[in-house]
Every structure is written in structure tokens, then in C-alpha cells.
Amino acid sequence: MGAYNYMDTAILGLAQGILGVTDFFETINCQEPNGITYGYPIFSPSGNTGIGYNAHQTQAVITTSGAFTSSDTAIIVTLNGVALSSVAYSSSSAHTGSLVVVAILAALPTGSTCVFNDSAHTFTIYSPGQDLTATLASSGGVTATTAYTVGASDLFMGVAGFTQRSLRSTAGGYTQNDPMNSMYLGFIYVQCPIAVTDGQSAYVIVDPTAVATINSVSTKTQGSLLTLQPQLVQVLIISRPNVCLDRQPQDLE
Predict the structure, then answer these.
(1) Rounded to an integer, what distance in angstroms lies between the CA atom of residue 32 and that of residue 42?
(2) Under 8 Å CB-to-CB from 90, ≥6 apart: which residues?
(3) What's the pLDDT at 220?
(4) Closest C-alpha among 235, 199, 167, 205 to residue 11
(5) Closest alpha carbon to 126 in 116, 141, 139
(6) Which residues of 69-106 are buried (b: 16+ CB within 10 A; e: fewer)?
(7) What angle do CA 192, 194, 195 make, to 5 degrees?
(8) Separation between Cα atoms, residue 190 and residue 234, nearest integer Å
(9) Confidence category of residue 247, pLDDT binned at 50, 70, 90
(10) Over the stretch 1-21, which tens digit does the pLDDT of each residue have?
(11) Nearest alpha carbon to residue 205 among 194, 215, 216
């Protein structure tokens, strides 16, 4: 275990060894730029489940204060810190919004989407595998706010399975473009930030300022990372809808 530096990078392997159970794996290509450590969650974009990322806030919803008007002669969207080319009002609010969508999609990688709802005054932007930041400013009277969340198109595939080969100098894990063992059915032990009872749901907690890990488990919905407490909780991982279980969880004495 010393080769993996930290307890949490080896915890999946420990759980398998202690329980002596056969877990279920599939191979997924790692597309996370900084790699994925053993025991961390894997998410794939819908329609392309052969690639996997860590959990990210992949959806940004920009809400404007109202419809675009002729006074909005310079509408500028900033994506991930980069200002896009200015868009000017053209014929109607709906048409102007569509021009903004074109500018946004041109700046995002393949697989991204952007939907403009003129009635709700929203731009819903999705880009797999990254924590989006997005703002909109206008020379006219329109102002905007942005909310971030995990994209509905992100599918939880399981957790990165333990292997005896370490690909990093400081921790065991998979590097970008490496085939990963993804455990889609089985048990792992995780650190838990709050008190839980048997049978409660566990959630991956996602924060744009830190890598999301399944070590951060809560019975609440997705939110900010919490301070971890030194207690272990057993979590049953199921990322397939119709899996039959032939074994029960065991307690770690």
C-alpha cells in the first residue's frame, strides 16, 4: 500500500481483499487530463460511454434579466475566462439569442451543446469533462446571472478499479488515454463527512475548485466539498439499472 502514498488511493483494493468478493468491471478509456485515481468516480457523456471523466460541473445556465433589444449592440459571453467575439442585436430577441449560441458552440469542444430559451431568457450550456465558467454582459439593459450543476447528460459509470501497477509517482491511478478498470457493481469503503444510517443514499459531492471524489460522500444532494471525518462507510456501487445482487454487505470489524 505504501506505493500508493495515501490510504484513500488504495481503499478500493483493500475492500476487495478484505471482503473476498468478485466485483464486476468493464474497460473505459480515461479522458481526464489529470488522470483518475483508484476509487474515484467515473462519469461518461450520454451516447459515448466508452470514455470516462471525473465528476465535473459540466452545465452552466445563464439567465438574462429580459429579452434582448436594439440597445444590446454588444453582447459578450466569457467562457472559461476567455471573452468571445461580440454579438449585436439582430431583428429579434430570439434571433439574437441564436447568434449567441453559434458563438458559444464555436468556442467549445465537440460534444458540447447550447440551448437558448427566449421565453425563459436562458442559455443552457453543456460541455463534457470540464468545470464550466460562463458569464454574459451587454452594452444594453440586459444583465445576467449564471448557475452551475452536473449536466443531466453525465452518466455515472462506476469507480476506477484498483490495479497493482502505479502510473504516478505520488498515487496509484490511470493517466489520460489509459484504459481503466471501471467497477460498475461491488462494494467500496469511503470516508464520510456526516453521520449516516444503513440504507441511505450516497452522493458524489462536486465542487469546481476541487476534484470530485467518492471519498466525499454525503446523504445530501450535490454541493460543496465537506471536511472529511476519520470514519469509513461501506457503499454499494450499482451503475446498471437491472443488476441482481447475490450477496449482502459485510461489516468491517
Answers:
(1) 10
(2) 96, 99
(3) 38
(4) 235
(5) 116
(6) eeebeebbbebeeeebeebebeeebeebbebbbebbee
(7) 100
(8) 6
(9) very low
(10) 334 444 444 444 444 444 445
(11) 216
Domain 59-149 matching CATH 3.30.70: the answer reads: yes
Spell out the domain ranges in the chain: 2-52+156-238, 59-149
Max alpha carbon distance in the chain (Å)?
Answer: 70
| Cα–Cα distance list, 140 to 74, 88, 99 (Å) | 8, 10, 16
Across all residues in the chain, what is the average pLDDT? 76
Residue 159 is given by DSSP the state E
Task: Say if residues 67 and 121 touch (Cβ distance below 8 Å).
Answer: yes
pTM for this one?
Answer: 0.73
Q: Which helix (H) or strand (E) holds 15?
A: helix 7-19
- Rounded CA separation 186/174 (Å): 20
Distance, in Å, from the CA atom of 43 to the CA atom of 29, rounded to the nearest integer, reads: 11
Partner residues linked to 207 by β-bridges: 210
Closest CA to 206 of 216, 195, 192: 216
Q: Which of 63, 200, 44 has the alpha carbon at shortest distance from 128?
A: 44
| pLDDT confidence tier of residue 169, bands split at 50, 70 and 90 | low
